[in-house]
Known about the structure:
The chain is α+β, with helices and mostly antiparallel strands. The chain has helices spanning 47-57, 60-67, 74-83, 95-105, 115-126, 147-166, 195-206, 213-223, 227-231, 262-273, 296-305, 322-334, 339-346, 362-372, and strands spanning 3-12, 19-33, 36-44, 129-134, 137-144, 238-239, 244-247, 256-259. The strands form three sheets. It has a three-stranded antiparallel beta sheet with strand order 1-2-3, sandwiched between helices. Strand 2 (19-33) and strand 3 form a beta hairpin. Helix 4 crosses helix 6 (147-166), helix 7 runs antiparallel to helix 8 and helix 12 (322-334) packs antiparallel against helix 13 (339-346). It is elongated, with a radius of gyration of 26 Å.
Amino acid sequence: MGSITEVKKTKQDKATGKESVVTTYRAFIRRTVNGKSVSKSKVFETRGKAKEWLRNNENDQALAALGKVSGPTFADLIDSFVKAPPKRGTKFWSASHLEFWRDQFGQMKTGAISRSDINSAVTTLQNKNVTRGTLNGLKETDAKITPATVNRYLASLSSVLNFALDQEIIEVHPLKAGRVRKLKESKGRRRILTAEEEQKLYEAAAGSSWPMMPLFLRVCLTTAARKSEVLKLRWKDIHIDESVAILPTSKNDEPRALPLVADVKVALLEAKKVRPLASDFVFFDPRHPERPKNVDTVWKFVRQRAGLWKDREDALDQVVLHTTRHTVATKLLKKGANIAQAANITGHKTLAMLKRYTHLAAQDAVDLADKLLTDGAPEKTDAA
Length: 384
């Protein structure tokens, strides 16, 4: 018979230090098949799913096939993978993604991970709620993980399996040749701020009850940084002389440099003079200086005063804080930066992720062609 073990893990929010307990259930089977001890396990969010998996995997035939598999466990493979120098096919991965796959397949032999195992894990991901960092730690929302996010998880898994192929640990990549299909992604948010809309937001921010809101908005609109990246900025990260702010880790779990334009540097120097001694954060909460500010309510009021709160029917066309990131990326490309240069500022991990912005400059290309390439056009002649 198999067994189910309840596993409680304490997770700490990096921004606030708050801890929360997450409960999972590990289903485990071990038997002796043909004189060989074999085992298989998997982690589930509910005990019911763990029981169902046991019923489907407790037969001798399934375990006999497992007994023929050799090589390291997937957990051991991940440990080797993260220590190995990156190369083509193994560069894209996220620590949080690998943690999920470790929970799913950690005790399985790498060669035993099948297409059905991965598809089952994808189903788990699709039913997983998004978590958001709050002042009280991670909070689960009602929203489900998007198909785009699921595909990023699969990309991290693919990198690990590419490493396994290169090391001759497996002979067949279970994600390749359509064995596991990527989910269809939405086109994402499309809103880009116009110069007039930016000015309205700046004016509204200037009237905010939070004195740091104008600087916060200006940083967002000059660095393309994500909300979480800006809020995590500490004074030790600010290097005025070099005109950069260094993020120790970004969303991609890698360091990132944010450019500081001239007026932002001046505003930061002024802000530093009046910062409370109890706060390390640049954008601190005035009531709790040891924490970063929760800007959601203030940002809502700014959009309302600017006339940009839910101003369009389609939610993907409405202004959100991430719109500032899209706006910066588009402005860079429109003003002549190539994709690699833009990525260096915005922090996009792959150039392909930036290509979706290039179509937004199409009209500029038409206007430029009309302006510069119309000389020498054939003259019109009267029809015979």
